[in-house]
């Protein structure tokens, strides 16, 4: 059983549904899960946790407003995050050159802080006829042996 902190970046709310679907799947897999729809860096446990970042991209490859402060605080922190693992789900639209760029930005900050990447990002392309919640749940299930 692992400890998950789901950290959500969403402008219009769609990614919140994806995050809630992930919470449901991880709980079904018997993990402990906390969901942060308004993430505050100081309040999110990092020690021996798996951070699941679910974020859309807005503007021209920008992070959604609600996760910008978290990203800035993470970037500025001098905490030891070597016991923090992470996985990233990006929600975007491949018609943009900056497809899922916010997810890549968060990923590179986490790597720069010494966090351990468990698997390659899942990028959900909303320009396709997909069920993003189902895709995310399936992806977690396929990779369940990694956490
Ligand atoms: C103004 C605007 C800008 C966007 N910019 C990007 C972008 O740069 N890259 C990308 O992959 N998707 C982009 N998107 C697509 C959103 O990421 C996509 O619609 C996503 O589902 C929104 O999720 P949310 O409801 O959680 O905010 C943009 C959407 C809007 C409305």
CATH second-level architecture: 3-Layer(aba) Sandwich
The termini sit apart by 8 Å
Low-pLDDT stretches are: none
As a percent range, the share of strand residues is 15-25%
Question: What is the mean pLDDT?
Answer: 97
Helix count from the secondary structure assignment:
4
**Which ligands does the model contain, each kind named once?**
flavin mononucleotide
CATH topology (level 3) name:
Rossmann fold
Give me the Rg, rounded. 14 Å
Helix content: 25-40%
> Biggest β-sheet: count, sense, barrel?
6 strands, parallel
Report on the structure:
The longest helix is centred in the N-terminal third of the chain and has 15 residues. The chain is globular. It is 34% helix and 22% strand. The chain has one domain: 3-Layer(aba) Sandwich (Rossmann fold), CATH 3.40.50.360. The chain contains four helices and six strands; from the N terminus they run βαββαβαββα. Strands 1, 2, 3, 4, 5 and 6 form a six-stranded parallel beta sheet that branches. Bound molecules: flavin mononucleotide.
Blueprint (SSEs and pairs):
Blueprint: E1 3-9, H1 14-28, E2 32-36, E3 50-56, H2 65-76, E4 85-92, H3 101-112, E5 116-117, E6 122-125, H4 132-142
Parallel strand pairs: 1-2, 1-3, 3-4, 4-5, 4-6
Helix pairs in contact: 1-4
Bound molecules: flavin mononucleotide.
Flavin mononucleotide binds near residues 64 and 100.
């Amino acid at each position: 059983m692992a400890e998950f902190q789901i950290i959500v970046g969403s402008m219009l709310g769609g990614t919140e549904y994806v995050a809630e679907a992930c919470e449901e799947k991880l709980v079904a897999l018997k993990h402990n899960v906390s969901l942060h729809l308004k993430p505050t860096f100081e309040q999110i446990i990092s020690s021996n946790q798996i951070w699941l970042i679910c974020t859309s991209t807005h503007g021209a490859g920008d992070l959604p407003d609600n996760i910008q402060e978290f990203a800035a605080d993470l970037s500025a922190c001098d905490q030891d995050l070597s016991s923090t693992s992470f996985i990233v789900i990006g929600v975007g639209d491949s018609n943009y050159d900056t497809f899922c760029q916010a997810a890549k930005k968060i990923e590179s900050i986490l790597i720069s802080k010494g966090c351990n990447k468990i698997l390659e990002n899942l990028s959900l392309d909303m320009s396709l006829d997909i069920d993003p919640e189902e895709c995310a749940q399936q992806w977690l299930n396929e990779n369940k042996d990694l956490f």
